[in-house]
Structures are given as C-alpha cells and as structure tokens.
Amino acid sequence: MSQKKDKQKVLGEIFDDERVRSFLNVESHGDVNADFNILERAYRGMQAENFETFVQFFKEAGHNLNAKNPRGETLLKIVSDHRQSNEYKQALTAAGATL
Question: Please, where are the H alpha helices in 1-99?
C-alpha cells in the first residue's frame, strides 16, 4: 500500500512546550486511573527528552506520579521492565516516582 502524495509520514515530531502540555488533556477510559492513563500515553507517545519535560508539567498540575493501573502497577514499575527505557525511568525517579 502506498501513501498518497499529499500525505507525508511524520518521523521524529518536534514537541514544543504546548505540544508536551497537550498530553495532560487525555481522558481516562473504563477503570483506568486518569493520572496513570495520562502518564502512560505520554510515555508511549514521546521521546525521552520530551517525557522529562512532561513529567515536570504533570507534577506542577498536581497529578500523581504513583498512580496505578488496574493491576496495581505504577508506570515506573512497568517502565522498569522495558529494556530501552532507562531515560524514562530516570525522569520518573528524579521527579519522585516510586515502584
């Protein structure tokens, strides 16, 4: 399947502060904690340097870095199990997240 000529693939999107903050406006679905959902979406959608900035905005907005998913896991716990997540782990722990 080919891409239409008027459609361009976006790789390595540049995130300014406004774009990073936009991740704070994510709604939760079902029984997922809203703060956990916001954190997880940011983790999955951002490069590490943008995620570090996001974590600061997240805390400033009064959100909980230790929010848990329905299985009782924090994002730091989940990220700790991923091989290439060291920078994300560092951003979370530096901001006060715990397992």
Answer: 17-22, 34-45, 48-60, 75-80, 86-94
Q: Is 87 a member of any domain? A: yes
Residues 37, 24: contact at Cβ < 8 Å?
Answer: no
**Cα 88–Cα 71–Cα 94 angle in degrees, nearest 5:** 25
CB 36 within 8 A of CB 68: yes
**Does a structural domain hold residue 1?**
no
The boundaries of the domain holding residue 77 are 17-23+31-94
Q: How many domains are contained in the chain?
A: 1
Which pLDDT belongs to residue 4? 44
Q: Model pTM?
A: 0.83
Average pLDDT, the chain: 88
